[in-house]
Amino acid sequence: MSFGGKFEDSLVVEQLHKLSVSFLVDDLEIRRGGVAANMCFGLGRLGLSPVLVGCAGDDFADYRSWLERHGVDCDYVRISETHHTARFVCTTDTTGAQFASFYPGAMSEARLVELAPIVAKVGTPSYVLIGADDPDGMLRHTEECRQRRYAFIADPSQQLAFGSGELIRNLIDGAAYLFSNEYESHMIEQKTGWSASDVLDRVGIQVTTLGKDGVRVTSKDGILIERSAAANVAALEPTGVGDAFRAGFLGALSWGLGLEHAAEVGCVLAAYVVETVGPQDYTFTAEEFLGRLDESYGTESAAAVRPHLSV
Fold first, then answer.
1. pLDDT by residue (tens digit) across 18-69?
2. Phi then psi dihedrals of residue 71, to 5 deg
3. What number of other Cβ atoms are within 10 A of residue 19's Cβ?
4. Maximum separation of any 2 CA atoms in the chain, in Å
5. What is the rounded CA–CA span in Å between residue 230 and residue 212?
6. Would you put residue 35 in left (φ > 0), alpha (ψ -120 to 50) or beta?
7. Are strands 77-79 and 25-27 parallel, antiparallel or unpaired?
8. Are the beta carbons of 179 and 241 closer than 8 angstroms?
9. Using CA atoms, how far apart are residues 183 and 165, in angstroms rounded to an integer?
10. Most buried of 62, 151, 153, 249 (most Cβ within 10 A)?
């Protein structure tokens, strides 16, 4: 929602302990989101078949239909009998200040989901990406991946601000990939007590997004790849951009492409999201996507992706 004034004009500093305010908003936009669903949507847009694992409420039916129409397997989403689907509600004023609330709802039941029965039906996963979720659920799924030797990706993102050092260490250690933005990478080091090299000793590859500056990919084996952001991006709204990058990066890996092309595909998919309002409101054709790859990273990049892309 958007408020046409300034929140500060309605706040009396001396009376904040008795705060009770109401704002008449100009609009209401309801957007589909959630980190796992955003990533799965992106993979589906690239023609892949991701499996969404998580918890939702009985209000999930419409969202399920949308995701399934875009190539996402939702058969393994647990439906809560008592909670609504998690949601984020936010009002922004003309200065960019925000009042926001997050309702975890059904997300709190993620700890009840076992991965092995899902794997028995869909096959051994290329990767299990463990994104921001109920902390106990994240920990359970990470431990199950270690025990059952499923290659997993650590992507704690929003939970880094609230997680303890012990939790973060347990979520990261042994990951095939670690995803974060640059600020989060420093938070990981601060909270875990590990240096940058310590982190690399515990994961296969670290992928650090750099906003408008692109992405950096590093590993303990000395791999260092840097890619700039896609060319000629008309940035509009950043929500879900990191999720789209992850979808593109992992999509390219699933096609058997190298890390360089994975970074490029991730940056181009991210560009589509930052140019729209909402994490799942972008569209493109295969030729449009390949054209942006060519424009941003050259004909070799587009040629490498062309045989695999089936939008």
1. 888 899 999 998 999 999 999 999 999 999 999 999 999 999 999 999 999 9
2. 90, 10
3. 9
4. 64
5. 9
6. alpha
7. unpaired
8. no
9. 16
10. 249
Closest by CA to 5, choosing from 20, 25, 28, 30, is 25
Residue type, 47: G
Query: Count of CB atoms within 10 A of residue 115's CB?
Result: 20
Residue for token pair 């918890």: 55
Euclidean distance between CA atoms 153 and 128, whole angstroms: 6
User: What are phi and psi for residue 290, nearest 5 degrees?
Assistant: -65, -35
Asked if 265 and 247 count as a contact pair (C-beta separation under 8 A), the reply is no
Residues with a catalytic annotation lie at 243
Strand partners, 227: 215
User: Rounded to whole angstroms, how far apart are CA atoms 142 and 220?
Assistant: 21
- Give the separation between CA 41 and CA 111, rounded to whole angstroms: 23
Q: What is the 3-state secondary structure (H, E, C) of 230-290?
A: CCCCCCCCCCCHHHHHHHHHHHHHHCCCCHHHHHHHHHHHHHHHHCCCCCCCCCCCHHHHH
CA gap 50, 46 in Å, rounded: 10
123-143 confidence digits (pLDDT tens): 999 999 999 999 999 999 999
